[in-house]
Design a protein that fits this description.
The complex is a heterodimer of chains A (407) and B (434). With 407 residues, chain A is α+β, with helices and mostly antiparallel strands. Chain A is built from twelve helices and 13 strands. In chain A, the strands form three sheets. Chain A has a six-stranded mixed β-barrel with strand order 3-4-10-7-9-8. In chain A, strands 2-12-1-13 form a four-stranded antiparallel β-sheet. A two-stranded parallel sheet of chain A has the order 6-11. In chain A, a hairpin with a 3-residue loop joins strand 8 and strand 9. In chain A, helix 1 crosses helix 11, helix 2 runs antiparallel to helix 9 and helix 2 crosses helix 12. Chain B folds into two domains: 174 residues, no CATH class; 225 residues, no CATH class. In chain B, strand 6 and strand 7 form a beta hairpin. In chain B, helix 2 runs antiparallel to helix 10. Chain B is elongated and about 100 Å long. The chains are: A alpha+beta (407), B alpha+beta (434). The interface between A and B is large, with 55 and 53 residues.
Chain lengths: 407, 434
């Protein structure tokens, strides 16, 4: 092989060789970490919601003044919404998945526990599970007869009378698994705070929280049989009908009570898109930086490669005169680049790991999985080879006669 | 000599346009990325009220029960109504204000505008003087207005323009949530960044449009915004928040000078002890007193994505510089023959070095100018983003100056090594090999 002559040549061009190595190392380190961040974001953006995303509409209204007959008005609204052609299910709810504003509680397995086992979000509202279209995996969903009104629940809670409080709950699989690992959650008891025992009657596959602090806890949701009349409605219809139904719903609600302001009227797919807007922007930015880095590195290699070829025209001519084929010359430059890239990649790996450790400490990121390193290595090898190809071809084209020419 | 070197440099740069363009592009990309992200970081980590930030304090105390108690934990980020009122009435600071965010329905008199919701702030009288809120017309309300639950309101210039067509509206009436309010003041354009006095309603959110006395807002049960944390039997029943075991209000105090902080902290500690003997507080006394900047640091206001982007851009700039060093080295060494002749004709090493650095500087300037263009483009892109800080991303004069300094310094640094290496050639050898 030609490795030894290449190495001895490189030793005479230490600075230039070192610069190429340094550039490849830095690019490798940054790109590995950036790609890792991108996959993290993409995973987050594609987080399951557990609801019928293509079929939902959210409409929220707020009364202008104070009203007293909220419950009756809300029943009126619901009946009117249900009468709209194409509406499959309707619910008056306190919050919606990915809706940002949320109601959460500390959950305990034992009321004497000092610290909560976990923090879960509370979905209230008759028919909420049926309207959202969550998928039941065990037990049953809440039925209309299970529900108490918010006012009654509050009164019972403050006066300490447990009879008026709800006593059953439907939770998600993730939450069940976190509370009772490896066991069936059905029939088990959990406490909201220290005062409110709830028995698990159903487990659903997924139901994402309105606002997510930690991705690992995104699915910690409960549905508690408390009815609400906050003027927030979710409507389920077929995907094609969504826009028509939304407009009809707004009209119906306005007609029912003109003295209020609409503050939300969205297809749920837009709710989801908006929730992850920031993540998507960051993903685009990271990908942009990666591409720019690789292009700059490739251009740098092309530039230096051209310089090397120009500098060594005589040397190449001599080799050609002594019988080296074009293939030999081509292979020489490609091997040289491969060697430099390899050294760069090895240093880059160590750097990538270092950067990851730094990010882990500062931004609570997980550890860089090992398989990113070979992927980064292959990418840089390929880019190096592609970049050096042009200059190498030019080198191979040097005629042997150059050797005999005096410049 | 300088003019001659400049001429030489320009000629040399023209000789290999592709290589020159590559170097300029590399520097421009690095500078552009760095300036974009640094500007965003600079804007977001600014001091919202520089003249007073060291004298405005945010006291925290811990009124919770023992449930979930952890030693060494932080007190809640907000205060209860009872504690807020007690601290307010004690008047131990030069000024103090108790407040919360909200949203009120506005019913315009003009029939052509539908009723709409505006973000609002329910606060006590000192707010405006304490935070240096600039008045365009009129003034804020008095302690007496707070006491008597007056139906008075201060609105912002934008809302004034919308409802009254930029005329002085003081003395006029506007209808909020089915009640009539007298406009007593109009605030001039003002946007403290971050939105430090209440981070619950958004770190970089715009100014609320409506300011109403806290007592009035409670009297009319105006809808509130922001976060609320409850414990024990404290439910989120909006009608009884005054007695609830919930923290949901922000309390700020202005002290005559920063040295009074220890005194004020002792006062709040004493208050906590008192409340503990009364049986209201159960946890060990835990008081924190942070000034504006300490509070913003503690709340980690600057989004971590923005910091991450800055690191990324810095890494990118370094790669671009290494690239430029390599290319410059190639370029300068290629000129060995020419430099050999100059040396042989009597130019000292220093002169040759100077000549090459001038060439590096030109590349740096060109890179800087292109980089500036890229930074403008980058900031425009940032402004298209959905984040609440997006509209703040503008280049200011200091950042403009920094761009050029950064471009020049980095290209000079990138030029140093190649220029030094190129000076090392032995003129005789170069001439001989020709």
């Amino acid at each position: 092989m030609e490795i030894f002559p290449i190495l001895s040549t490189l030793r005479r061009h230490k600075t230039t060789a070192l610069l190429v190595i340094l550039e490849i190392a830095l690019t490798c380190a940054i790109v590995c970490n950036a790609v890792f961040l991108v996959t993290q974001r993409i995973e987050r953006i594609n987080m399951p919601s557990g609801v019928a995303e293509q079929e939902l509409i959210q409409v929220a209204m707020a009364d202008i003044g104070k009203t007293t007959d909220e419950h009756a008005r809300s029943l009126q609204d619901l009946a009117a919404l249900r009468a709209i052609p194409g509406v499959k299910e309707v619910a008056s709810v306190n919050q919606v998945p990915f809706g940002r504003s949320s109601n959460n509680s500390g959950i305990k397995i034992d009321p004497k526990q000092k610290l909560s086992t976990l923090n879960a979000t509370n979905y209230y509202g008759v028919n909420v599970a049926q309207t959202l279209g969550v998928q039941l995996v065990a037990g049953r969903l809440l039925q209309e007869s299970d529900y108490v009104t918010m006012d009654d629940a509050k009164k019972a809670f403050i006066s300490g009378k447990t009879e008026g409080l709800p006593h059953i709950v439907v939770i998600t699989q993730d939450m069940a698994e976190r509370m009772w690992p490896g066991q069936s959650a059905l029939g088990k008891q959990l406490w909201m705070g220290s005062d409110m025992p709830l028995q698990v009657v159903g487990v659903v596959k997924n139901l994402v929280r309105p606002s997510i602090w930690k991705d690992a806890e995104a699915q910690y949701s409960m549905m508690i049989p408390i009815g609400v009349d906050d003027g927030q409605y979710i409507i389920r219809t077929s995907p094609a009908d969504r826009e028509r139904v939304r407009d009809a719903a707004l009209e119906t609600l306005k007609k029912n009570n003109p003295h209020r302001i609409v503050w939300k009227k969205e297809l749920w797919t837009d709710v989801r898109a908006k929730y992850f807007q920031g993540d998507r922007a960051m993903t685009g930015l990271l990908i942009g930086v990666c591409v720019a880095l690789l292009v700059v590195t490739a251009l740098g290699i092309v530039g230096l490669g051209s310089f090397w070829v120009a500098q060594r025209r005589r040397q190449i001519g001599v080799r050609r005169a002594l019988g080296a084929t074009r293939g030999h010359i081509l292979r020489y430059f490609q091997t040289e680049n491969f060697l430099l890239a390899t050294i760069g990649i090895v240093i880059g790996m160590a750097l990538a790991y270092g950067i990851n450790v730094f990010l882990m400490s500062k931004y609570e990121l997980p550890r860089l999985p090992g398989f990113y390193l070979p992927i980064g290595a292959v990418a840089l090898w390929l880019i190096g080879q592609a970049a050096v190809l042009g200059p190498a071809m030019r080198a191979a084209a040097v005629p042997p006669v150059v050797a005999t020419r005096s410049v | 000599m300088f003019g001659y070197y400049l001429d030489l440099a320009l000629r040399s740069l023209k000789r290999n346009k592709v290589l020159t363009a590559l170097m300029v592009l590399a520097i421009a990309l690095g500078i552009g990325a760095c300036m974009t992200t640094f500007t965003v970081l600079h804007v977001l980590s600014g001091d919202p009220i520089p003249s007073k930030s060291a004298r405005l304090f945010y006291p925290q105390l811990d009124p919770q029960d023992m449930d979930g108690y952890r030693e060494g934990g932080e007190p809640p980020d907000q205060v209860t109504w009872i504690d807020g009122m007690n601290l307010l009435k004690a008047k131990r600071g030069a000024r103090q204000a108790l407040m919360t965010g909200g949203a009120v329905p506005i019913q315009p008199a003009k029939a052509d505008i539908d009723p709409f919701y505006s973000d609002s702030r329910y606060t006590t009288s000192n707010f405006f003087a304490m935070f240096d809120a600039p008045f365009l017309y009129g003034h804020g309300w008095s302690d007496a207005d707070d006491e008597s639950k007056s139906r008075v309101v201060v609105i912002t210039r934008t809302l004034n323009d919308k409802l009254f067509g930029d005329k002085d509206s003081t003395g006029q009436t506007i209808r909020l949530q089915d009640a009539d309010f007298r406009v007593i003041g109009v605030l001039d354009t003002w946007r403290p960044n971050p939105h430090f006095y209440d981070l619950n309603t958004g770190n970089y959110t715009e100014l609320e449009e409506v300011f109403v006395p806290l007592s009035t807002s409670r009297d009319l049960k105006m809808p509130r915004n922001g976060s609320m944390d409850c414990w024990g039997k404290g439910g989120a029943d909006s009608d009884h928040l005054e007695n609830a075991e919930c923290v949901w209000m922000q309390f700020w105090v202005e002290l005559a000078d920063a040295s009074k902080a220890a005194e004020y902290k002792a006062f709040v500690e004493n208050y906590s002890k008192e409340q503990k003997t009364l049986g209201r507080f159960q946890r060990p006394v835990n008081v924190k007193l942070r000034n504006v900047n300490e509070w913003l640091d503690y709340q980690k206001v600057v989004p971590s994505d923005v910091r991450l982007q800055s690191w990324l851009a810095l890494g990118f700039l370094i790669v671009c510089l290494v690239n430029t060093i390599g290319l410059m080295l190639a370029k300068f060494l290629r000129k060995s023959g020419e430099l050999g002749v100059r040396r042989a004709l009597g130019a000292s090493k220093g002169e040759v070095f100077k000549q090459l650095l001038i060439e590096a500087c030109i590349i740096g300037m060109a890179g800087g100018i292109c980089g500036l263009g890229l930074a403008f483009l980058g900031l425009w892109l940032v402004r298209q983003q959905p984040a609440d800080y997006a509209s703040l991303a503008h280049l200011d004069l200091s950042m403009l100056a920094i761009t050029f300094v950064l471009a020049l310094v980095s290209s000079l640094l990138a030029g140093l090594l190649p220029a030094w290496r190129a000076c090392q050639i032995t003129p005789a050898l170069q001439l001989k090999s020709q």
